[in-house]
Automatic annotation (TrEMBL):
This is Malto-oligosyltrehalose trehalohydrolase. Transmembrane segments: none annotated. GO terms for molecular function: 4-alpha-D-(1->4)-alpha-D-glucanotrehalose trehalohydrolase activity. Substrate binds at residues 244-249, 308-312, 378-383. GO terms for biological process: trehalose biosynthetic process. Residues 76-496 form the Glycosyl hydrolase family 13 catalytic domain. It comes from the Bacteria. The record marks D379 as: Transition state stabilizer. GO terms for cellular component: cytoplasm. The lineage of its organism: Bacteria, Bacillati, Actinomycetota, Actinomycetes, Mycobacteriales. Pathway: Glycan biosynthesis; trehalose biosynthesis. It catalyses: hydrolysis of (1->4)-alpha-D-glucosidic linkage in 4-alpha-D-[(1->4)-alpha-D-glucanosyl]n trehalose to yield trehalose and (1->4)-alpha-D-glucan.
Length: 569
């Protein structure tokens, strides 16, 4: 930003106020308004819009790169220079990665970017190759998951702002760890969003979280540019290695070239010009192969996507929970199917949705590494009534069994912060809007949602309370049980690499199962697992490389302890 300008096609006149002094802008092409006034770092500014005879109040810039006083404050011109030290960083492609999802505000004692920097050595020793930050765009208040962001080009000041994020990325690269940003391009947060006064950023309709973003109606070229320019800023200026795109099924775009394809084009361009790979990972509940299919094959060409079906199959099998969207999952056969086919719902009936769902994936065309697998995520923990983690409900054996099914499978594994040591703190949903009515509606909405799912009202955490946030902070002092779980995770991560278990195509994966057991692997290595409370014998043998509990191998079979597994070479 060298001079003050703004896209405001709805306005009849526009003024910019810089450090208390007003200046008129002049109309340009395509709804843009310009000035010849130089933008100097440190200046605070906002725009006033005239519609008819009425002037608006002073509004922050939709393309603001800094909101030091929050989403309702003035924008700040930032100095984008930074003394980078990551010149030797060559990046990471998605195959071979171990992703670690974290929430900046609750991951460390400090609750900011510097607190994450303090833990990078720990993450490197664990075996993490990429950290995925839950959204860090500005939101109202100081407690939020981040999915209520409203300025898609800026960084939340409470975490350390633009400089803090750059310092984190620079430090992560020194530790040989990539940084992935979780970004939300499917809706604006409910507080602090004034974009509708400037132009048609939304198109009516509702995603369930907010109005549909205008990717295809009149004025949508500039809205698409708003998204693409934000992505370019993260990649080029912040040296970000990848983007996790939230709920892309809610990015409604019926045009011939989907905005996801444009993001792929942009990513490839930046890879070519910098020589550093960049990664795009989608969250989608559509079970649509187009997300990760090549553009030559009619797909969007993204590098990866989360696979909830694998989580659901594993969670339901181990926990026994079968409510809501878990209803169609549960048996060992279901887990085996997803292990081979990725999507459980693939042109099949979903009882939860009451309709046919998904599309069959050709696993010979898409590598297994394109699918991100996990035992849990922020969604799967936080969207429970009390935010209770699996580690608060499962035995150490069950926790490590689930970890083995993720870390030893051919998919790209992802951990959610704290699971690697069986964290006993919850991760609840929390907000701190400044609007009391929004707080009331949020709390009541959660109560209605969980009541429909059959939760007891007494179990529901109040998302607006300070306690919801404070209780969600990780506690970093391990007891003996947690240390044992942590060491198991370390071993599994090491075995994944030593035994080269991240093999490219699922057609080479051998899967067998019985009523309570499952085996998967290749000619040279097999993982056998017991999903029951009883010891069982399975017809597989070999050198026992690792088990968590007391499993034993004989000449003709393997004896598996309850909820245990064995890695056989």
């Amino acid at each position: 930003m060298t001079t003050y300008e703004v896209w405001a096609p709805k306005a009849d006149a526009v003024r910019v106020t810089v450090d208390g002094t007003e200046h008129d802008l002049y109309a340009g092409d395509n709804g843009w308004w310009h000035s010849d006034l130089a933008a100097t770092p440190g200046q605070r500014y906002g725009f006033s819009l005239r519609t008819g005879d009425t002037w608006s109040s002073l509004l922050p810039d939709p393309r603001s790169t800094s909101q030091p006083d929050g989403v309702h404050g003035l924008s700040e011109v930032t100095d984008h220079s930074f003394a980078w030290t990551d010149q030797d960083w060559t990046g990471r492609i998605l195959p071979g990665q171990l992703i670690y999802e974290l929430h900046v505000g609750t991951f460390s004692e400090r609750g900011d970017f510097a607190g994450v920097v303090d833990k990078l050595g720990y993450l490197r020793e664990l075996g993490v190759t990429s950290i995925e930050l839950m959204p860090v765009q500005p939101f109202a208040g100081d407690r939020n998951w981040g999915y209520d962001g409203v300025f898609w080009h800026a960084v939340h000041a409470g975490y350390g702002g633009e400089v803090g994020l750059k310092e984190l990325v620079d430090a992560a690269h020194r530790h040989r760890i990539a940084v992935i940003l979780d970004v939300v391009y499917n809706h604006f947060g409910p507080e602090g969003n004034d974009t509708g006064m400037f132009g048609p950023y939304t198109a009516g309709g509702n995603t369930g979280w907010g109005e549909v973003i205008n990717f295809s109606g009149p004025g949508s070229d500039e809205v698409r540019a708003y998204v693409l320019d934000a992505a370019r800023r993260w990649f080029e200026e912040f040296h970000i290695d990848g983007l996790r795109l939230d709920a892309v099924h809610a990015m409604y775009d019926p045009g011939a070239i989907h905005v996801l394809e444009q993001l792929t084009y942009l990513t490839k361009e930046i890879e070519a010009t910098t020589g550093i790979p960049r990664t795009l990972i989608a969250e989608s509940d559509q079970n649509d192969p187009r997300i990760v299919s090549s553009q030559q094959a009619g797909g969007y060409g993204l590098d990866g996507q989360w696979i909830d079906d694998y989580h659901h199959a594993l969670h339901t099998l181990v926990s026994g929970e079968n409510h809501g969207y878990f209803a169609d999952f549960g048996g060992v056969d279901t887990l085996a199917h997803v292990l081979k086919e990725v999507f459980f719902h693939a042109e099949t009936f979903s009882t939860f949705r009451g309709r046919m769902h998904g599309r069959r994936l050709d696993t010979t065309l898409v590598p297994a590494s394109s699918f991100v697998a996990y035992t849990t995520t922020h969604d799967q923990v936080g969207n429970r009534a009390s935010g209770d983690r699996p580690s608060m409900n499962l035995s150490p054996e069950q926790q490590v069994l689930k970890a083995a099914m993720v870390l030893l499978a051919p998919f790209t594994p992802m951990l959610f912060m704290g699971e690697e040591f069986g964290a006993k703190t919850p991760f609840a949903f929390f907000v701190s809007h400044s609007d009391p009515e929004l707080l009331r509606l949020t709390a009541e909405g959660r109560q209605r949602e969980f009541a429909r799912a059959g939760w007891n009202n007494a179990e529901i955490t109040d998302p607006t309370s300070v306690e919801a946030f404070e209780n969600s902070r990780l506690q970093w002092a391990f007891d003996d049980e947690q240390q044992r779980i942590f060491e198991a995770y370390q071993t599994l991560i090491r075995l994944r690499k030593q035994l080269q278990l991240a093999r490219p195509y699922l057609e080479h994966l051998q899967v067998e199962y019985g009523e309570n057991w499952l085996a998967f692997g290749y000619d040279d290595v097999t993982v056998v697992a017991n999903f029951s409370d009883e010891s069982i014998e399975v017809p597989f043998t070999g050198e026992l490389r690792y088990c968590f509990d007391a499993s034993k191998v004989s000449e003709h079979a393997t004896q598996l302890a309850p909820w245990d597994f064995a890695v056989l070479v």
